[in-house]
């Protein structure tokens, strides 16, 4: 499963990029990720990483589970609603030639990782490589709809939101019964992760992706599934140090790829400090408890909120819903904070200078704020 930090800055950047090239064009997003950004792909798979049952969705519209790994909305759902746009639908819910593919698709799958053997015990899940292959099929369908030239322009201008890596730790390296933790030192493992990720970025670039946003990992050592491994229920310092090492290496990888890949505009978003503050100072954000989950499922293995689980009395008091994922209330507070900060800055900023005449040199990734009026 994913951690709380994985989507915060990513959706912030997506929100402010609503006009990349034209003030009249709405941004199109293609989402790659794991359970924190999933909106239902695993419902169509024979997977143990599913959330299409009670109590998931208990606070969602209609009180029904949708495949989102929380009791209600994701951060992406909330920010999309504020911007007046729909969250991209799950890839596996669409027909190959569905017109919806032109407005964006969500490929995220619970249990997915950078490495293909991550989350292997969930049986079926769409790994990052699987998600890239699915996007390739989407591009072919777009090409059949609007022609090759228009399809290339479409994929070049879209924004690609990528959130991967948590499962490679939580459901791979940190599991004592899996080979990765025994086969590799952490230095070797993080090199494997970043080299594989570099190949995956390159594959997306070859398919036409230019504006890619990768958000770093949050403090995984502080999520309930990791705290339970401590006798005192505290954050696991070593895990957090490993996460920070991963973040640092990915940030350097992104800088290198931006120099090597033509017209690449890859962004690295560091969510670590934001999420750590929420966990360490929950009362500042209106919460009471951040060290355990509302759905009482904090175990070193497992951690999903099953129908026979015991819920907390007040879901709004908890940062975490299950052992991995935030509550709807936490998502709402974070989304409101991000949205307010974003548009306060937008309203207080001077008008942008006129756009210069295009030149053959690569353009920088311009982040323009959205005018809601």
From TrEMBL:
<feature type="region of interest" description="Disordered">
    <location>
        <begin position="346"/>
        <end position="373"/>
    </location>
</feature>
<dbReference type="GO" id="GO:0005576">
    <property type="term" value="C:extracellular region"/>
</dbReference>
<dbReference type="InterPro" id="IPR051238">
    <property type="entry name" value="GDSL_esterase/lipase"/>
</dbReference>
<keyword id="KW-0964">Secreted</keyword>
<keyword id="KW-0442">Lipid degradation</keyword>
<dbReference type="InterPro" id="IPR035669">
    <property type="entry name" value="SGNH_plant_lipase-like"/>
</dbReference>
<dbReference type="GO" id="GO:0016788">
    <property type="term" value="F:hydrolase activity, acting on ester bonds"/>
</dbReference>
<keyword id="KW-0732">Signal</keyword>
<feature type="signal peptide">
    <location>
        <begin position="1"/>
        <end position="22"/>
    </location>
</feature>
<keyword id="KW-0443">Lipid metabolism</keyword>
<dbReference type="Pfam" id="PF00657">
    <property type="entry name" value="Lipase_GDSL"/>
</dbReference>
<protein>
    <recommendedName>
        <fullName>Zinc finger protein</fullName>
    </recommendedName>
</protein>
<comment type="similarity">
    <text>Belongs to the 'GDSL' lipolytic enzyme family.</text>
</comment>
<keyword id="KW-0378">Hydrolase</keyword>
<dbReference type="InterPro" id="IPR001087">
    <property type="entry name" value="GDSL"/>
</dbReference>
<dbReference type="GO" id="GO:0016042">
    <property type="term" value="P:lipid catabolic process"/>
</dbReference>
<dbReference type="InterPro" id="IPR036514">
    <property type="entry name" value="SGNH_hydro_sf"/>
</dbReference>
<feature type="compositionally biased region" description="Pro residues">
    <location>
        <begin position="351"/>
        <end position="361"/>
    </location>
</feature>
């Amino acid at each position: 499963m994913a951690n709380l930090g994985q989507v915060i800055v990513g959706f912030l950047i997506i929100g402010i990029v609503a006009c990349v090239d034209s003030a009249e064009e709405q941004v199109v997003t293609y989402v790659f990720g794991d359970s924190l950004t999933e909106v239902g792909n695993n419902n169509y798979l024979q997977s143990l990483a599913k959330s299409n049952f009670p109590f998931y969705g208990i606070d969602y519209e209609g009180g029904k589970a949708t495949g989102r790994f929380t009791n209600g909305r994701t951060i992406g759902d909330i920010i999309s609603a504020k911007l007046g746009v729909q969250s991209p639908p799950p890839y596996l819910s669409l027909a190959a030639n569905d017109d919806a593919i032109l407005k964006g698709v969500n490929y995220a799958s619970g249990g997915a990782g950078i490495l293909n053997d991550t989350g292997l015990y969930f049986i079926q899940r769409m790994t990052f490589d699987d998600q890239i292959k699915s996007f390739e099929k989407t591009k072919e369908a777009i090409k059949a709809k609007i022609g090759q030239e228009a399809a290339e322009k479409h994929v070049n201008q879209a924004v690609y939101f990528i959130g991967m890596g948590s499962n490679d730790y939580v459901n791979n390296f940190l599991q004592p019964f899996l080979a990765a933790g025994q086969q590799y030192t952490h230095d070797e493992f993080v090199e494997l992760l970043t080299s594989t990720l570099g190949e995956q970025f390159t594959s997306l670039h070859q398919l036409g992706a230019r504006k890619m946003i990768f958000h770093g990992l949050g403090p995984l050592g502080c999520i309930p599934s990791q705290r339970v491994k401590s006798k005192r229920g505290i954050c696991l310092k070593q895990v957090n140090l490993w996460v920070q090492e991963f973040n640092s290496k990915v940030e350097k990888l992104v800088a290198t790829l931006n120099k090597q890949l033509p017209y690449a505009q890859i962004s690295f978003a560091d969510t670590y400090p934001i999420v750590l503050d929420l966990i360490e100072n929950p009362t500042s954000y209106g919460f009471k408890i951040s060290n355990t989950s509302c759905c009482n499922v904090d175990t070193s293995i497992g951690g999903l909120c099953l129908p026979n689980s015991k819920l907390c009395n007040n879901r709004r008091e908890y940062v975490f819903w299950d052992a991995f994922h935030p509550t709807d209330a936490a998502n709402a507070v974070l989304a409101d904070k991000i949205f307010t900060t974003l548009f306060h800055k937008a309203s207080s900023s001077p008008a942008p200078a006129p756009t210069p005449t295009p030149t053959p040199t690569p353009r920088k990734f311009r982040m323009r704020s959205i005018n809601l009026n």
